[in-house]
Amino acid sequence: MTSNSELLLAGYQAWNSEDLDRYLELLHPEVHISTSGLFPDLPSEYEGRDLAELFWRQMHEPWEKFRIDVEHIEEEGAWALASLRLRARARDGLAVDMRFGMAMRVQDGLAVEFLNRRSFDEARKAIRSEQPEPDRAPT
After folding, report:
1. Domain for residue 100, yes or no?
2. What Å distances lie between residue 92 and 17, 35, 44, 56, 129, CA to CA?
3. What is the number of structural domains in the chain?
4. Per residue in 35-73, pLDDT tens?
5. Is residue 84 within 8 Å of residue 71, measured between CB atoms?
6. What count of other Cβ atoms lies within 10 Å of the Cβ of residue 38?
7. What is the DSSP code (8-state) at residue 38?
8. Is 139 domain-assigned?
9. Using an 8 Å Cβ cutoff, are 68 and 82 in contact?
10. CATH number of the domain enclosing 45
11. Around Cβ 123, how many Cβ atoms within 10 Å?
């Protein structure tokens, strides 16, 4: 059985080696991707594998070189959280080197939800706001 962290790392390995087929194999059919807003030309949400493929293509096409490295990873329940570093060079020579955070929720051994945020802390807050409060016994 693959851990959530291993699944996340396998996804970025496929992403960095430009293996779209492998990347899509790791996704739940009902995958939901929420973007961070760092690239304003992209939609804020993508739903399903077909739109996940569109997201992949939109992220890869403008770049001559494009790499995302996982700098830190943690697991929290069904989620894997990562601090990421994006390094890319556009075809026109523009270079990008930035960090961001993301959280990936796993269901049935596949990635079913991605929350991309501007920082690791924002990704952590996003998953904690989605999780229901534990039931509290009356006092």
Report:
1. yes
2. 22, 24, 25, 20, 40
3. 1
4. 988 787 889 999 999 999 999 999 988 889 999 999 999
5. yes
6. 13
7. S
8. no
9. no
10. 3.10.450.50
11. 26
